[in-house]
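Possible regression after last week's pipeline update?

I re-ran a chain I had predicted before the update to compare outputs. Posting the input and the new output here so someone can diff against the archived version. Not blocking, just want to make sure nothing changed silently.
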Amino acid sequence: MSQLAPGVQAFLEAGRVARLGTADSGGQPLVVPVCYAFDGRHCYSAIDAKPKRAPAAELKRVRNIRENPRVCLVVDHYDEDWSRLCYVILQGRAELLTEGPEFSQAVGLLLAKYPQYRAVRLDRTSGLVIKITPERVVEWSSAAPSEGGCAPLPNLPQDVARAKPALETTGVGA
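New output (post-update):
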């Protein structure tokens, strides 16, 4: 897989919310909004202590990942000025992390990005984190291709991050 464009890398790192798409073994889809952290290679999303309809292990998104690990994560930016519309779609595989060094590192990334997680006591030693390993990246922006693909979020410095080797990318919309 090739490198992410610097604008895509920065966009994923700065995004505050994404939509996680999962499907059960029969193909029934589910899309839920999630907070996430991107480390340049993987996205991580915690099942936190906010009120849920079921215990973490019984949530539909978790059951879907156990049945079918193929997932999709969409990070987008909407603006009333449609010349600033942008999205990045990550298609790949999900794993459920419940402990260990990678789990702890993922929780650390999430705590650093979202101070709100401190209030809900996101635990570095146990819990449930969804790890997404992208296999394909689709980016789209209403900006002209010569402008570098996905436009940065408002007030985001152009040089927030540099591309890291990780992913196959395409500028084709979905």
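Follow-up from reviewer: compared with the archived run. The radius of gyration is 16 Å. Marking as no regression found.
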